Structures are given as structure tokens and as C-alpha cells.
## 1
Amino acid sequence: MEQKPVIEVRDLVKKYKASGEIALRGVNITVNKGEFMGLLGPNSAGKTTFTSIICGLINPTSGSVSVLGSDITLFPLDVKQRIGLVPQEIALYTGLTVKENIYFYGHLMGFHGEALKKRADSLIETFNLGEHLSKLLIHCSGGIKRRVNLISGLIHDPELLILDEPTLGVDIQLRELIFGYLSDLNSKGTTIIYTTHYMKEAELLCSRVNIIDHGILIADGTPQSLIEKNEGCTDLGQVFLKMTGRDLRD
Amino acid sequence: MIRDWPGLAILFIMPAVLLVIITFTQESAIPSKKSGMKIAIADADSGDFGKSLVRELTGGGYFNFKSFVNEEGARTAVLEGECQMAVIIPDSSTERLYRLLNRSTIDSIKAVISKPEIITGVVFLYDPAVQKIFRDAVQMPVNSVIQLTAVKVLMTKYTEEVNISVRKHSNDFSARLIAKDFFSGIPEFPYRNEVIRRFRDELKTRMKDGSEITMPLSPAFNSALVVVEEKAVRKKNMEFRPGVLQNNVPAFTLFAMFFIVIPLAGSIINEKNHGTFTRLRTLPVSYFQVVASKITVFLAVCILQFVFLMAVGKYIMPLLGEQSTLDLKVNFPAMLGALLGSSLAAIGFGFMVGAFSSTHGQASTFGSVMVVILALLGGIFVPVHMLPDVIKKISMISPLRWGTDAFVDVFVRSQGISGILTELALLTGFFIISILLTIRVFKKH
């Protein structure tokens, strides 16, 4: 039996009523199970709008959006239970401790008791947060906050993980740890959508790359295939610049 | 800075609003015709005394009086909050006053003036919600008017009789005799001899030219002719006499509850600014769950505030020497209703401030100043019935006014749940509208 795609987006259009801005202009994207997809694009290209629609934060103006086999606009709670989002900003409660933040998001995802403890302990150990658990988040370093931010999106072991620049402002050691963890997670079957401005990261991690610009999907393929298709380009960064141009964006 | 409209509003609009309201409130703190306090007056006497007293009080410019045909009407007006106090002039007051003159005129007057006796009584009814300080401020001048009116009425009648007597015996000897006789039984008072001399001279003059004699109203006539009895208008099941704590503790508990706006709005702004709210929206939780969880936590805080401040009023204040007591033997369902209604309104207000503010500074400044304004309008510092009519009308939109009214009805007027249904409906309605507006702003955000 043919497996349904994890994400299937058809003719996706999003026009913001207030500003009149058209963020997505008929985008078609399919993400299959187990893919590690890089979603790339300059600023204001439409990446955030796309991930916001996938997460059920905003509704599309037109087009169909199927996530994990369900229409996100019709069954948002069912889908949200199975996806994890790691936002770019540190979306945590500064008045809570490291442990309280992790457990808070675990509870919200329906984890309780021993199951939550087991899952939390495993992630805490992986990201080496054991000695910081009782620290108030407001007193933690940027690196610790970034790790807690990541764990909070992973606590329920989601089938689909969406990461928005998870390595922003982190040192090389933590970056390596995150890369390793995500690769491992992906190899176990978790589908990942990875948004970043670091082309090297996308080239290294992603099995497939989609480039969006001005609300239109302009490239889709493996990093290697995209490099080969674009004559004179030796890395994904050059491909990106060739396709999106050198003009500064908003 | 000119682009920071909320900041500019905090700097200019809110101080102006405070200035207006505090000025009106301060002016209203002393009961007067300018204050919103209304006093019912019922003349069951309909004689000279009753009519004169109504004329003196209503025409004197002291307070806002409203006439009622009988005691029942005035009592109902106080019970229903239309008036805060009532002056009841009992039936046959004039007759009892004039009965003095039916004795041997001068002797009877002297007897009364030298040794006051109860001639008639005026009943002073008051709403238990009106604190003693305000009752006294009204009762003292009203009492003076009552006594003075009684003396005037009596002396007018007496003068008529003296004039008749003088016409019969118009000679110098009679004048001396009447004057001496009149003042002989009166206790010492300042300028006594001067008053007697003038009275005697006037008698002589009038006797010669045949004109009417006007009796002097000397300081001696300040003795009380009328006993003023003070009674609280209360429902049959209300046994206690509310003291200052009975008013203040619930009122300031309500005030404290509304300060929940600062932590509540702060938490909403944190969630908006730190992205946690957006993150919550990506989790399998609905708007209702997000809002309901906050409501539950802050409702618990409000209930704890209530219990704590009630305990302070009940147990700590007496230790600090407070004479009045806080009576908690009130209708429990009504108390619970007032508590929950007020708490929800406070929480709704906190949600709105949090939803519409962008920064902590805006929320805390706007929130705290608004709570003070709403408290001023709501009668926390100066009772609403004291405020001028314009401010009183504006106060109708203050949730603190609804909360205060509900608590006063429960704690002071011994009302049950049926007695506070209007306030509960307003508080709950405010809460629902606030939450709907907040969710609308959240969705837009």
C-alpha cells in the first residue's frame, strides 16, 4: 500500500487581509515520510507563512493543506498532537525553571507521570542539562535556553518536526550536538522540515531542499542535484544566490 | 515619543481624567447640596411644624431633599438606595408642640426652656451602607434646623398669644412684669441683662403704638425641643449594626482584586513578546484552554486575596484597636456570588489590558491608574451616593461600582443572591465581553 505524504500542499495561496500582501502564490510541495527537507529562501520569501500554515497557526486563503493525512484547517488539534515546532525565538517561560519549562510543554502535549519523566530525562541527558534543571530560565545562558527550546518541541516525540533556525547564535559545540541529534532522529523515521539561512547546514543535513522566493517555489531537489543543475555553482550557497539574486530583501 | 500613542495617553489623558474625578470626589467628600447624597423627607404631621420644617430643609440649600407623602415612601426610598437618609416628621408633632401653650403660656414656655422635655420626636432613618462620618455630617446641621424650626414655630404661636395679652394690659408695669416674668426662669446666658432690657423696651414701644411684638430668640432657646431618633433602615433578617469594617473590608478587597491586572496583563505580554503564546497555538490546546487555564489560576489568587483580607479585618484589626467588628454571618451564596462575579470581572479587565498593551510599562501604568480611576468611580474611597450626579452616571460603567454595590448589598444590607442579580449580571457580562475581545485580539495577533 502506498504511503501518504506527510505534507501535501496544493496551490497554496496566502494573502494577508490587513496589509494586502500576498505571501504565497500557488505553492505545491510534497514532503514524504522520513525526509529531511530544507526550506530555504531570502527574508520575506514566504517561509514563515508556509510553516505557520503547516502548524495550524494561520489559515490559507486558498489551496489544500494535508498534514499527516489530515486537513490542518479542519482537524488542527489532531495534527498538532503529532507535530513539533522549534521556533527561532526562545519561546519559553522565563519565570519557570529549566525543568518546569520542559515538563510544562510535556503536560500540554498530553504526557504525564512516568512517561513524561522518562522522556524528559532522556532529552535532558542528551542535551546535557542535568545540572541546570533548577535554574530559572531568566538566569540561563543563551546556549541553555536554545537547548530547552529544542527539547520543548521534541518532548512528545513528534512524527513531523519543524525547526526554524535552531542553531541561531549557538556555538560550534552545541551546533554539532544538534546536528547529530537531528540526523539520528531522522534516521529513526521522523520527518523534519528545517528552515535556515546557513546554506552549509542545509547542504550537510537535508536530503531535499525547497527554495521559495516571492511566495513561489523556485527549486526542489536534493542539494547535490540542485548544484549540478546550476552551471558554475559548486555549493548550495551559490545556487541560492543564482536563483534568488543579490538584491537585498525586507 | 510622538508615535507612542499609549504612552502619550498615559502622560496626558489619564492624569486629566484623574484630575477631574479626584476634584469632584474631594468636593463630594463633605455632604452638601453639590454632593450626590439625597435625603428623603416625609411630613406625616402636616401642621405648622411639619410644613415649616419641610420648607426650611428643602429651601435651605443644605442638601438634596426629596419629599414623600408618608413614612413608608421615604423608608422604601432609603431601602432601595434612591435616598441615603430620611427625615420623618411624625403625626401630630405640631399639636404636641402647641400643647405647651395650652398651659399658662409664659410658665409653660419657661418650663420648657429651663428644663427641656420631650415634646415631639423626629426620626432620622439611614441606609446602613452610609458610614457614620457621613451620617454625622448630615445629621448635625439637620438637627440644628429641626430645633430652630421648633423654637420658631413655638415662638410664633406664643407671640400671637402675648400680643393678645398685651393689648388687654397695655401699660409700663405690664411690660416690666411680662419681661421679668419671661426671663426669670431662664438659666444664665451671655448678655442676659442686655437681652432683657431690649425686650422690655420693645414691649413698651409696641404697647404704646399698638404694633405686634416680636419675641427674641436668645441663646437660651438652643435647648432641644425635639428629640431626634436615629434608626437604620434594614431588612427584617438584619440584626447587626454595620461598622466601618463592614464597609471597608469588602471594598478594599475588591480594590486589591482589580490589581490583579498587573501580573495578569504582564503574563499575557510576556507570552506575546517571548513567542510562547504563538508556540502554545501550535500545540493541541484551544484558545479556550489557554484562556481558561489563566482564569483558573487568577481566580484562585482572587479567592485567596478575599480570604486573607477578610481574616485581616476579622482578626487583625481588633488587635490593632479597631472598635467595630466584621460580621461574616452574611448570606453565603450571595457572598460567593459577589466574590466570583467581582473576581471574573477583574480577570476580564486584566486580559483586556494585556491584550491591548504592547509593553509591561504600558500595561502596569495604564492598568494601575485605571484601577484607581475605576475605584474612585466605584465608591471605594468616597461612597458613590456622595458623588455628583454626572460622576455618578459615569460610575455606572465601572465594574468596581458593580462589585462594590454587590458587596455592600451582601455585607451591609444583608441581601441574598436575588438582591444582587443585577450586579452579578453586569460583572459576568463584562467578563464575557472582555474575554471575547481578548480572543479577538489574540487571533488578530
## 2
Amino acid sequence: MTGLHPRFHDRAAFAPRPDYRLLPFRFIRLDDRRYVMTNDVGEHVVVSREQLVALVKRELPVTTQLYRELTAKHLVFDDESRAALDLLAVKYRTRAAAIADLTGLHIFVVTLRCDHSCHYCQVSRQTEDKTAFDMTREHADKALALVFQSPNPAIKIEFQGGEPLLNFALIQHIVQEAERRNACHGRDLQFVIASNLTHLDDHVLAFARAHRVFFSTSLDGPEDLHNANRPLRGGNSHRAAVDGIQRIREALGHDAVAALMTTTPASLARIEDIIDEYVRLGFTSIFLRSLSPYGFAIRTRLVHSYDIADWIAFYQRGLRHILALNRRGVAMREELAAIILQKMFAPAGASYVDLQSPAGVAIGALVYNYDGKIYGSDEGRMLAEMGDDSFCLGSLDTGTFASVMTDDRLHDMLEASLPESAPMCSDCGFLPWCGADPAFHRATQRDAVGHKAFSAFCAKQMAVLRHLVTLLEDDPEARRVLMSWV
Amino acid sequence: MPIRLGGRGARAVGEVSPRPFLGRISTDAARCGPTEIWLAQGGDLPAGFRAYLLTAAPLTPAVPRDSYVLAPEFAYLSDGDIIRIEPARGALHTLYRRSSRSNSLLVTERCNNDCVMCSQPPKARDDSWIVDDLMQAIPLMSPGTPEIGITGGEPTLLGPRLVELVQQLRDHLPGTAVHVLSNGRGFAHGDLARMLAGLRHPDLMIGIPLYADVPAHHDYVVQARGAFDETIRGILNLKRHGVRVELRFVIHAETYAGLPAFARFVVRNLLFVDHVALMGLELMGFARTNLDALWIDPLDYQCELQDAVETLDRAGLRVSIYNTPLCVLTPTLHRFARAAISDWKNMYFEECDGCALRVQCGGFFASSAVRRSRGIARVASGYLST
């Protein structure tokens, strides 16, 4: 190549100093050849063991492409250029900024009654006629007062159950009252009803349309699988869900309804069928979830019926199928992967409340239970039904947003939930992409931190993260699809 | 068509001022005064003007003081334009054209970078008189001016005087967007960013070049060790104080390979900037000095460009491609291309006649004939731009 005019200096004159310094980073083995290095803000580089050793021994040549990448991703710097420190500080603030907004998700358990009798039900539903399991209007009003004490500019109110449509009158009251209060608060206010849709009727749809209410429903896969998982006395749960989805879309628009699936032993062999059912019904995303260790799933020992290794194999097969669909031009994304990819590549990380540091307990989501109790997470109220009230942060009769946020039990829990200070998490290379799940560990190990060597949560995270990084490194076509989910 | 902004275009007739002066072109005999220069269109020369521009030599030697015969290449001058006349050299320089959308004020030729492709090579000499002139010129500009550029050299070398200049623009032309081209280093330390922000200019943008994701490479392109750090800190300071920032990346043989990494770096570290401009090379100044080392046919960097644009666009950043004609640009990138070449140095080739994309295309720099892309071709009608 032709050089520059002699009055200019060549590239060598601007080479980095060889006496580089390391910025804080963690590393973890990816496979038998490679390691993943991450910094505190979630940037990463995959290196060979030899490269890692050379880097740490300060023997990596500064003229290599790897050194350039490590510099650009702020894993190393030298004394002549310290802009990396300024940029890292900005990035750390960007990632942590959302914490200061406090609670954005507010879950109203308007009733515990349900017409379904799902084997995996996490909330210990009650039969339909026991109105003792309905939230009172007084509690709903007190909960709304608390909702608007949160400083978060975006407030999402989610109605859960049981089957929330069995207490639709209260939903109407809450929506109208929230809108009335918001007239002076001016928040970005959203409503979602998590429903099995068997009680969806024109009355509900008209109201949802008038107040821009969205729906979330359960869809476990094709009809036979869905109905085996979700028995509906005297009815067909799958048909109700599919009909409901169609009616919502016709009345409110295609994206007004989302679906969630749960993996049971019967699902394991059917992942392709499940995904294809989502495609058939016009969904462009699916969240491959494992069973949670709460409610009937524990009581019936269903949660022990498959191993986390089985789930991981299921997940990998599912992801392969989804990537193949994308290659054929069918848009479909997997939500767990999307959340993790956000944490890897988006400056603000991901807002998903169940994978945060500190945990999203209370500061990410608050749950107002049918009985007037306040919980720090949806799983927290599920634990309470099992006799563990450790996530209870008071009652709507006396509680305020301030009393909840300054509760010592909450602070202890948040402090314990920081992976940065948790054994086996603090030095894990995957830390910036992970988060804490205190309810899970409370349920499985009777301890909110838990021993990660025995944690199915940790095993699942590790496997999914290794799988995703490997795909990003080794499969350019998969990488292209995965990056489009960020 | 390109036009000439400066040169020996004002031949003195009779007695002239000893010093250079500036004034506004007037064709309205009622708008006279010490800042107005009469542009003669035949007929008598009205009294009361600072100077007189004649289109032809006068028939009688009896002309007012400071009368000049205007060279034909300056025939574009019209009412409201602002010029500077150096009587001793017979030189004329156009500072401002009222009808133009691309008025740029060159505020200094000094610079603390020495970019390998600089189209306006720096000169290390005291030129502080330029700002004095501009401070006088700004009140004469039309309040309807859509945009004023401030360029150099490096404008921040003026220090507080740059703030005065922007204040002058704010006070006299409150409806005019101001776009400052700076390497950003001057905003890294001290108070300049805070002072500029303190003006609360209604429409101010600082365009700052960043050429790489790592210090070594950026410093090489701008030929100044430590420049990357100061530029980054300058960007952070400006944004911290609420001043809008545009990143500018000039694509040439020494930078194109780094485009994808640059885009990923911006998305991760500087997502709060207001605009990213990816720019074709102008073959002037040092770019011409280093032509063989820096020239790459735009056809040969479309992959890297597409990768970078995709990364920036997907992250929600506003991205534009400047200075690249549509015929050499991958069709999927057409929607990012903007016609951004200043009118006075903008041109089209023979191939452009009858080209289907001519209307939306930014065309070429007047200097582009030096090296032509293999891709320059007339696009047949019926082509649907994406």
C-alpha cells in the first residue's frame, strides 16, 4: 500500500503503550477451548486459554486485533488513554438508571377463584364460588393510592388471579379509578389482564377497547397437550384460548394479546409442535419457560418430574427450531434469549423483573393480593400460599409506598439479592447477564441466596448463556437472527 | 454548478480605502449607509454607500470613493449577500449568500488536529481578525437564514470568543439553526461546554468527528496523540450540559475497515448522541496530498457501510450518509443518503443527465473528478428506490 506524505506520522507512531493495565473483569470457561470475559457493564470477549493467560501476565502484544477489541470493550487501558474510565462510568449509570424509577409493575390479584384445574398451578386457585377469595373494593382503592406513590413514569397494572375475569366488576372499577387518578399524575399507564379467556365476552372486549386494556393468556401448545396440562371442567381450554385470541385481535388489534407457555413433562418431546402452534396462531414470540416450584406444581411433585437437564435439552431444541424458522423467513423470537441478549448488547440492559441485580422484589414489581396483603413479587405471594410469608411487606390496610420501600425485611432481601456479593456469583463470568431469584431459592433451598452448586436456576442460566454465546461465536447465521432480537 | 467564493474579483477604480472592509450588497437605493455596498445595474450611482460594485468599467473617471469593477465570476452576488473587500489586492471574498442554504463561516484556520484527509489544511497563524469581521457581519444577515455553519480550522481554539460568536447568532438570527464543526477536544476541559450550553441557543448542534473505537486508531487519523480521549470527554461534557452532538465519520482507505466496530462502539457508549453522519471523502487539501493512500472506491466499502448503518439504525440512532451519490450506494442504504454538499462546490457528471435518481441524489464534490468510482452510472428510469 502507498504510504502517506512524509509530513505525516505512520500508524506505529500512535501504537498503544505496551505496559497496559487491566480493568475489572470476570471470566468463565465457555467450553474446553475458550473462555468468556465480561466487564461490569456486560460487554464481553471470547478468548482462548492461551490468550487469557498472556493477557493477565501482561504479555499480550498491543498490536494484535484482540488487544484492540479488549480496548474497545473496556477490559484494558493504558496510562495514556483513560477515557475508558469515563465511558465505563457512563455505561454503569445507564444500566443502573432504571432502579431509581422504582416500581413500574403493579399486580392486582383480584380473585383467587378459577374455573381451570391446571396441574402446575402456582397460586393454589380456589373453586369458582368462594367469594371469600375476592379482593374488596376498599383494598383496591388503597392499592391504587399506593401505585401512584411510586415515582416511575411508566406504570403497568396487571390483573391476575385465579381467573381475574371472574371478578371483572372490580377490574372495571380499578381501571376507571386509575385513569381518574392519572389525569393529574400523567404517567404512561398500561393495563393487562392475565386470563385463560374462558370468560371473555363482548362486554369485556368493549370495555378493553374503550380503555386500551391488553391481554395475556396461557397457551401450552397444540390442543391435546394444552388440554392435558390445563383441564377445564366441562370445557375445552385450548379452544377457549384460541377463540379468545381471535376475538381480542379482531376487537383490539393483532398485538393486543400475548401468550405464555409452561413446560410440563408432556411438553418435553413436543417442542417443535408447541412452537409451530404459536406460528400457526400468528404469534411472533414465545417464552420457553420451565416449571416454577410453587403451588400445585410443588404439592403434586410435578416440578420434580423432569430434570433441569431435560429442560435444557428441550430449550436448545426449541431454539434450534426457532432459528430454522427465521432462516425460512418466519419471524419468531424466543423471549428468554431476547432478555439475555438485551443484557449482553443493549446499553440499558433488560427490564425483565425476574432477572435483575438487585432483585426486582418490590422495587420492580409489587403484588396486591386478594386478601389485602402486599408482596414484593408474584412468586412471593405463591410462597405465602405455601406457608412462607417472607415476601410479605405489610397490608393495604396500613401500608404506604414509603412503608413498603423502607421495610427492613425488604432491604435485607435486596442486599442479599445482589449477585455481586453472593457466593459463587460474585466471581462468575456471567454475572452481568444474570440476576437474582430470591423466591426461587427460598422455595427450593429455604434461603433467598441459595447455594448455587445445587441451584436449578443457576444450572439453567449457565446452560442457556453458554449456549447463546456459543451460537454467537460459531454460527454466523444464528448470530444474525439473535442480534435482530436485541 | 460550483461557484467561486473568493479571489481577485474587485478591481479598484479611483480612490479606495486603505484597509479591508466588509459590507452587505444592496440594490435598494433607499437602503444605504456605512455597511451597505451598492451593486450597480446600470444608471446613476446613488450617494451614501460604503462602496460601489460596477459590472463594467465606467465611462467617466468621476466615480465615488471605493468603486470596483466586479469580475464576471462574481455575477452571482445579489441583494443581501455579505462580502469582504481587500482594496490593496483587489480581492473579494463572499462571506454569506442570502439565497444559499449552505452558508458556512470559517472562523479560524488554526487547528490542533492534523487529519490525514483534511479538506481545509490548517495554517498556524494569528487570524483572530476573522472573528471580528464575523461579529460585524452577523447583524447584517437575513433573519430568514435557515442554517449557518461554523467551521475552521478548529473553532474551539477561539475559546470564549466562540461563545460570543454563537451568542451573536442567537441574538440576531434566533430562527437560524447553527451547526458547529469541531473536533471536540476544546470541550474536554474547563468551562467551554458549560458556557456554550448557558446560551440556551434554540437550535445548536456540534458536529464532532470520531474515527475509531480505540484511541490508537483515531489518534493516527487525526495525527495527534491523546486526541481520542479529549474528543470523547468533550462529547460527554457537551451532552452532560445538554448541547446536541452529531458524530461524523469520514470514510477512506484508513478508516473503512473500522466502520462496523465504530458503530458497535457508538451504540454501546454514545447512544445519547443526536445524529451520526457517515461521510464520503472530499478530494481536497490533504486528501489530495495523500490521495493514493486514502482513496478507496465507495463500491469497495459497501459491506462495511451497510453493517455500520444497520447497527446504528437498529439501535434507534439517526443515521445519514453524506457525500455519496446514489449510483454507488447499495440500494438498501438509499434511504439514509442525504444531499449534503454545499451548493457552491456541488456538481454532477455527464452520466447524471437523464438519471432517474438525479432529483434525490446529492451529486458530487467539485473535486470528485480527481478519482471516480467505477460505480458512477446513469440509473435507468423505472428504477424504484427503496
